[in-house]
Design a protein that fits this description.
The chain has 176 residues and is an alpha+beta fold. Helices cover 16% and strands 36% of the residues. Strand 2 and strand 3 form a beta hairpin. The radius of gyration is 23 Å and the shape is globular. It starts with a helix and ends with a strand.
Length: 176
């Protein structure tokens, strides 16, 4: 079979362009979702509370996808508040299931009266200790947590002495 060289070259270029277009138009895999954020306020707590406290949570999946970096910051309500717990929690409306405890009442760092504060650090798959009762959720599994965040079921919640069920909370969403 004798095929002219310009036809072979044109066919190869066409195939390369089709392949490049297909690859660049493919949606990014779920693993590409690596930054999550939430605005924290009293209206996102269940049941909602009246508070002037506010905050922001930013989480970044780093490394090999098994480490989550977090930075939770906020201002406290007038008169101050003692922070008891900072948790990442699952909720589909009403009832919370704690997945990761970032700070518990037995730890140092956020207690005391101040106008603003922050909590930063990392957690790994082994720190995901809750969620065993959630259908399809695997304890100690970062991909399960990311999937649950992308499904809109994961919140950051801050509890205080005055509001033991939560003073501020916010639903994590993909992006800054």
């Amino acid at each position: 079979m004798n095929v002219p060289k310009p036809l072979i070259l044109a066919t190869m270029i066409s195939l390369a362009l089709i392949t490049a277009t297909s690859v660049t138009n493919m949606p990014a895999p779920a693993s590409a979702q690596n930054q999550f954020s939430a605005v924290l306020n009293g209206s996102s707590v269940f049941p909602p509370v009246k508070t002037s406290a506010t905050g922001k949570a930013v989480l970044n999946l780093v490394g090999n996808g098994q480490v989550m970096n977090y930075n939770i910051s906020g201002t406290v309500a007038k008169g101050g508040a003692n922070v008891n717990n900072v948790v990442i929690t699952h909720s589909t409306g009403g009832r919370y299931t704690d997945l990761v405890t970032l700070r518990s009442g037995t730890q140092q760092g956020l207690s005391g009266v101040s106008k603003a504060g922050s909590l930063a650090g990392n957690f790994t798959s082994k720190d995901i200790t809750g969620g065993g009762n959630i259908l399809g959720f695997k304890t100690h599994d970062m991909p399960s947590l990311v999937k649950d965040i992308l499904s809109g079921n994961v919140y950051v919640k801050v509890t205080t002495i005055k509001f033991p069920l939560g003073e501020v909370a916010g639903k994590l969403k993909s992006g800054p």
